[in-house]
Structures are given as structure tokens and as C-alpha cells.
Design goal:
Layout (H helix, E strand, L loop, with lengths): L2 E4 L2 E4 L10 H5 L2 E9 L2 E2 L2 H14 L8 H14 L5 E8 L17 E8 L5 H6 L1 E7 L14 H12 L4 E6 L2 E5 L3 E6 L2 E4 L10 H12 L4 E3 L2 E2 L8 E6 L3 E8 L2 E2 L7 H18 L2
Parallel strand pairs: 7-8, 7-15, 11-12
Antiparallel strand pairs: 1-2, 1-6, 3-4, 3-5, 5-6, 8-9, 9-13, 10-11, 10-14, 14-15, 15-16
The structure holds pyridoxal-5'-phosphate.
């Protein structure tokens, strides 16, 4: 069984208990992170902890642990669960409070939870064929840069994708592509890799930054620029990126083929470069 971390202690998952008064349960008043580990080593831990810090500050929760304490706890959690290729889910909420009141409690006692589960690679057949995606108006709020646990819009958008036989829903606001329901978006347009610029309407993905770094490292032309949904008709390639799925080629959008309708050559290069990074991490 899984060993999880809750409020300073490690325990078997069935023993982890959270109050129904927890503001995470009552108000979705909390933030989270998902951090991948390869060969027992955390990928971009510093970047994930920085984003956690930003998310906590954005909703005004004091960070309950400092960097060394987060690092030690997460490494311990990985080791207790057997290492290997895993993903860590961690969540911090504003903790239990009574009576129910929207405004913050006087003395918040944050709930800190973390668990680690095996990283399940994307079905190789899907990776080889590429995946279908749909597009939808973005129905979220205007602080999508914070990784909050208030995920109902993402839940509905992912369910819609599933019901339409698609892998992801690409979110569009005022005619601009922003990101996927649980991923960032890249397009290859006229030989240039393009992704929307960071801002309040999308999550600054750690995988996104890594992909841009790979572009810079290998001298591949790239730009952070607005990506009109209408321009995707002309895209040669479309990808979505996330910590657990890495880079995924999207080969149809709303039922129409993207580019040649197959994973493209630029995807193949970046995916190879990404796997090189992971191999480096695994071998220390
Ligand atoms: N955008 C959203 C809305 C997400 O939920 C995620 C992660 O699941 C991402 C982007 C990708 O972020 P990362 O690469 O840090 O996993």
C-alpha cells in the first residue's frame, strides 16, 4: 500500500484522515503541485517549489514548510514508496475551521498532504499516432497562474474531452489559445515553435519552461506569442505538455487534422531531447 504524508507524519493511506471542516473540502481553499520523479530523482524540484510558493502567496497562505523541509519530506516520501518513476501530488489547504465562514480563520492551521504514485507513461500507441483534442471557450477565472485545487472547470473540460473521444480540451479566451485543461500548448508555425506568453490566464508550466529551454539549447527557433485559435488551421504541429505526460503530439483538433495528421518531425526531435534530459536525471 501507499505511504502518504499528512501534517508532519508518514502513514499508510487508509490511516490518513482529514476533517470534513477542512477548508479544502468546504471552499476548495488550497493549492497543489504535481512533481514527477525519474529513477527516484525529482525533476525541476526547485521550480515546482517556487511555483508552490507563488500559489500560496497568491491565496495568502503562509508556506508551512521551508525549502529544505519540503525537499527532505518529498525525498523521504519517494524512498518510502520504493523510488523509481513516480509522480508526487502535494496539497496545502487553509485547514479546518468552524463555524463555516468564507473569510479566513484568525489562526489558520494549514493541512499539508503529499502522496506518490507510479508515473504511468502514455500508451505508446497513442504517442505513436498522436491524440485528438477539442477546443472550448475558457470557463475559468482570471488567476489561472495559481495552481489552486478549485478544479471544477478543468474537471468539466476533461470530461467533455473524454465524452468526445479526445485526450485534452484546449481553452480559448477572446479568440486566443491559452492552454489545455491540464497542460500547456505549443504550435509549430512556419518552422517556429510558438507558445502563449505567461500571464494571469494560464499556468506557468514547468514542462513548458523546460521545452523552451530545450529549444534555446538546441538552437531551434521559438517565440512566446499570442496564438489565435483561428491560426491553428495553419499549424504544422500542435503539442500539449505536462509533468506527467511530458510532450504529447495532438494530431486532430475538433475533428480536423493538424498538419499532416501525424506526429511531426519537430515533435520527434523535442521528445528525443526531453528523454535525454530524463536519462541524465536518472543517471544522476
Ligand atoms: N496548465 C494546467 C491548467 C495544468 O493543470 C497543468 C498541469 O497539470 C499544466 C498547465 C502543465 O504544468 P506542468 O508542466 O508544470 O505540469
Amino acid at each position: 500500500g501507499l505511504t502518504v504524508y499528512l501534517n508532519g507524519e508518514f502513514m499508510p493511506l487508509p490511516e490518513a484522515r482529514i476533517s470534513p471542516l477542512d477548508r479544502g473540502f468546504v471552499f476548495a481553499d488550497g493549492v497543489y503541485e504535481v512533481i514527477p520523479a525519474y529513477g527516484g530523482r525529482l525533476l525541476r524540484l526547485g521550480e515546482h517549489l517556487q511555483r508552490l510558493e507563488n500559489s500560496l502567496a497568491g491565496i495568502r497562505i503562509d508556506n508551512p514548510l521551508d525549502r529544505p523541509a519540503w525537499t527532505a519530506m518529498l525525498e523521504d516520501l519517494l524512498a518510502r514508496n520504493g523510488g523509481g518513476d513516480r509522480s508526487i501530488y502535494l496539497q496545502v489547504t487553509r485547514g479546518p475551521a468552524f463555524p463555516r465562514d468564507h473569510a479566513f480563520p484568525e489562526q489558520p492551521r494549514p493541512t499539508v498532504f503529499a502522496m506518490s504514485t507510479p508515473l504511468r507513461p502514455l500508451d505508446p500507441a497513442l504517442r505513436a499516432s498522436g491524440v485528438p483534442a477539442i477546443s472550448h471557450e475558457d470557463i475559468r477565472w482570471d488567476r489561472c497562474d495559481l495552481k489552486t485545487i478549485a478544479l471544477l472547470p478543468a474537471v468539466l473540460m476533461k470530461q467533455l474531452a473524454k465524452e468526445r473521444g479526445a485526450f485534452e480540451t484546449i481553452l480559448v479566451r477572446n479568440g486566443l489559445v491559452l492552454e489545455g485543461a491540464a497542460s500547456n500548448v505549443f504550435a509549430v508555425m512556419d518552422g517556429v515553435l510558438v507558445t502563449p506568453p505567461k500571464g494571469p490566464f494560464l499556468l506557468p508550466g514547468i514542462t513548458r519552461d523546460l521545452v523552451l529551454e530545450l529549444a534555446a539549447e538546441h538552437g531551434f527557433p521559438w517565440r512566446e506569442a499570442d496564438l489565435p485559435a483561428a491560426a491553428l488551421d495553419r499549424a504544422d504541429e500542435l503539442w500539449v505538455t505536462s509533468s506527467t505526460r511530458e510532450i504529447v503530439p495532438v494530431t486532430s483538433l475538433d475533428g480536423r487534422a493538424v498538419g499532416a495528421g501525424r506526429p511531426g518531425p519537430v515533435y520527434a526531435r523535442f521528445y528525443g531531447w526531453y528523454q535525454e534530459k530524463l536519462a541524465q536525471l536518472r543517471s544522476g
